[in-house]
Amino acid sequence: MSPGRHLPAARVLAGRAIDEKILHSVRERALASGGELDAVALAAAVHDSGAALGSGGATASLQALQNEVSGLSVLEPFAQQEGVTDVLVDGRGQVWTDSPRGLQPTGFSFDSAEQVRALAVHLATLAGRRLDTASPFMDMSLNNYRVHAVIPPIATEGPLISIRVKNARQLELSEVLQHAAGFWDPLLGEVLRRRLNFLITGGTGSGKTTLLQAMLGQVRPDQRLLVIEDSKELQIRHPHVIGLQARNANTESAGSVQLSDLVIQALRMRPDRLVVGECRGAEIRDFLAAMNTGHQGACGTLHANHPQAVPARLAALGALAGWSLQATSLQAASALDLVIHMERDGRGGRAPAVLGLLETDDEGRLSVRTLFDLHCQDAVPAPALDAIEDKLGTPVAAAVRDWRCPAGRKGTPC
User: Fold this and answer.
1) Which of 79, 135, 164, 211 could pair covalently with 146 via S-S, beta carbons 3.0-4.6 A apart?
2) What is the pLDDT of residues 376-402, one digit of tens each?
3) CB-hemisphere CA count at 13 Å for 330?
4) Where do the DSSP E strands lie in 64-142?
5) How far apart are CA 89 and CA 91, in angstroms?
6) Residue 411's pLDDT is what?
7) Which intervals hold domain Bacterial type II secretion system protein E (predicted)?
8) CA distances (Å), 15 to each of 11, 53, 188, 262, 268, in order?
9) 34 contact partners, CB below 8 Å, separation of at least 6
């Protein structure tokens, strides 16, 4: 695939150059329709332009044209590949994809930094965002993607584009849990049934959002879910989901809506469950405060590379909200019942690996006590079993006590 060498006023679509006259016509239609164009509207736009795609490969040409105008342009085919979770353009214009097979080069490169920048600006325009020297980065949702772009001077080696592909098919909980579904499924079901407050933690791309989405799909249909996100990612199969999304300031630095604002608004909307897609700022104060004032079944995700890093992450977020270390520790230990830690295994899969409990010591320092770790095949200590029984009941504690990894791979989460 070629990005179109030496065609500054054209695009190569389905093997032929499509001039700017067609692109201008369909862009006008895209803007008028909010960025979405079906095949009929595209064909009408081409007709209005007075140009012709030709009879051969017309369907492919129209699809490529739709990608150019309301999708990811030349990056769309990579995002559509089976199993791809991320499409990345580096500072040299090289395109990479991430999937269960790991991060791999595609062999596709842009001709110049100008082409990458033009695509990034085009994507920003589709979402009504600004991307220029004064505003050199942006984060947005576009169709089934979350798009992030950074341009010079912030990006020192050239424009960068990072695209997270949202899973079009919502996975069942058993699919997310994979080999250990027999253990985790009843445990997580009990977490939901008892309306415990929990965080799903893990590193980048570990499957935090995927697990949260699958779990919330198991919530009773008579419960009202208030979902707060910085950029919409969660696609929850549930009959009563209310979504709130943060908003950046406009070019006049007005109109910003922060996650912390949305948490406060959500509490006035009778939530049965309060969900924060990703905790990463001062909203942690209002989120923890809500849990400590009777809002049960609250949950969210938190970026942490291992469970022992969770207290430090919470402390950092609490500091952003003006809390002391001790205040954050006490609030978190009181509010959160469990930590479920996700990891990527050596086979490219993503699955929960550790169940933890937040607690404070005599000096008020926060820590995560591991209750169960699928890396280990050793017996679960009696105090941990007691804590599991206290939180989740005797049947779950018995299942944890008797658990043996069916794969028999010590050191690798099952």
Assistant:
1) 164
2) 656 677 778 888 899 999 888 888 787
3) 8
4) 86-89, 94-99, 102-109, 137-142
5) 7
6) 43
7) 81-340
8) 10, 11, 50, 47, 55
9) none
